[in-house]
Design goal:
Number of strands: 12
Shape: globular
Low-confidence stretches: 1-11, 286-293
Distance between the termini: 26 Å
Strand order of the largest sheet: 6-7-8-3-9-10
Structural class: alpha/beta
Largest sheet: 6 strands, mixed
Strand content: 25-35%
Number of helices: 9
Radius of gyration: 21 Å
Length: 293
C-alpha cells in the first residue's frame, strides 16, 4: 500500500469521536527561581482531548510540553488552571480522590532505561499499578502479566526476567503494558520513542495505533519529530515559550500559519537534497564531497 494511502487508512480507522474526555482550561505553571525571578513554563494553555484521538504537543526543548503533561498527571502542581475529566477538575483533587483519579490517566516516560526498579521482575513491574489499587492477588499476577505481554507483542516467558535483560524497545513495550494494565482512558506519552532506534520507533507507534483502534484510547503524544506526528496523530498543538501558538490537523502541518510552526517545518531534513557542499577535511586528508539532505 502506498505511503499516502496507508496514512489515510490509519486516520480513517482511528477516527476520534467528538466526545471531549479532557478539557484543559487556562493552565499556568510558574517556577520560583529566587531573587524575585519567576519562570513561566506553561502560560495560559487551553486544549481539548477527544475520545479515541491522538493529540500531539510539539515544540523545541524548553517550550513547556513536558511541564504541561506533568501538571495533568499531577507530578507538578499547577499554579492555576483546570483540567476537567468526567466532570471533575483534576487540579483540585487531593488525597485519596487524587490517587483514584490516576487510574484514568497513565503515562509512558521518555527513557525506558530508568523507568523501572531494576530489582523488580517484569511481572511485578506490569502488575504494580494493580497491587496499588488492590485489584489483583499476587497469585494472579503472572497470568495478568502474560496477558499484557501478549497485548504489547512480547513473549510470555519473560515474566520472571529483570529490566536489565531487556532491550530498549522491549523495555518501552513493558512501560506501555504497565501504563495500560489499569485500562486508562487517557495515555500520556512523553517522548516515548525518542530514546529508541528508528526501526523500533515504528514498531512502538504501530503498536499504539493498534491498541487505540481496539480500545478508543485517547493519547497525548509529546514529540519533536514532526514527520512522526504527521503519520500517527489527528491534531497537533504547537507550543512556544510556554504558550500554544497554533492547533491544526496533523495531516495539514504544511498549511501552518504561525511563523514558529513554519520554522519548525523548515528544520525537517528531506530525504533527498540537490545541493552539494564541500566539507573541509583534516590536514593531510582529501576533502569529501557529500550531499546535504
Amino acid at each position: 500500500m502506498p505511503c499516502r494511502r496507508l496514512e489515510m487508512w490509519i486516520m480513517e480507522h482511528t477516527k476520534p469521536s467528538q466526545e471531549v474526555v479532557l478539557d484543559i482550561q487556562h493552565m499556568v505553571k510558574k517556577f520560583d527561581l529566587g531573587g524575585g525571578k519567576v519562570l513561566i513554563a506553561v502560560n495560559d494553555v487551553s486544549l481539548q482531548l477527544h475520545k479515541g484521538e491522538s493529540l500531539a504537543i510539539v515544540g523545541e526543548s524548553g517550550s513547556g510540553k513536558s511541564t504541561l503533561v506533568k501538571c495533568l498527571v499531577r507530578l507538578h502542581r499547577p499554579t492555576s488552571g483546570a483540567a476537567i475529566y468526567d466532570g471533575t477538575d483534576l487540579m483540585k483533587l487531593g488525597g485519596e480522590p487524587l490517587r483514584q483519579s490516576r487510574r484514568h490517566i497513565q503515562m509512558v516516560f521518555q527513557d525506558p532505561n530508568t523507568a523501572f526498579n531494576p530489582k523488580m521482575r517484569i511481572k511485578d513491574i506490569i502488575c504494580e499499578p494493580l497491587y496499588n489499587f488492590d485489584l489483583i492477588k499476587y497469585s494472579e499476577a503472572e497470568a495478568k502479566a502474560k496477558e499484557m505481554l501478549r497485548l504489547v507483542e512480547l513473549p510470555e516467558d519473560i515474566v520472571d526476567r529483570y529490566p536489565a535483560n531487556m532491550s530498549g524497545g522491549q523495555r518501552q513495550r513493558i512501560g506501555i503494558a504497565r501504563a495500560l494494565v489499569l485500562k486508562p482512558e487517557i495515555l500520556v506519552c512523553d517522548e516515548a520513542t525518542s530514546a529508541l532506534d528508528v526501526s523500533v520507533q515504528k514498531k512502538i507507534v504501530d503498536l499504539l495505533l493498534s491498541i487505540q483502534r481496539k480500545t478508543q484510547l485517547s493519547i497525548i503524544f509529546i514529540c519533536h519529530d514532526l514527520a512522526l506526528v504527521y503519520q500517527m496523530c489527528h491534531r497537533a498543538a504547537v507550543m512556544y515559550q510556554g504558550s500554544v501558538v497554533e492547533v491544526l490537523p496533523a495531516g495539514k502541518l504544511r498549511e501552518a500559519k504561525h511563523p514558529y510552526t513554519q520554522k519548525l517545518l523548515s528544520s525537517i531534513f528531506p530525504l533527498r537534497g540537490k545541493k552539494r557542499f564541500v566539507v573541509s577535511a583534516p590536514e593531510g586528508q582529501s576533502p569529501a564531497e557529500m550531499s546535504v539532505s
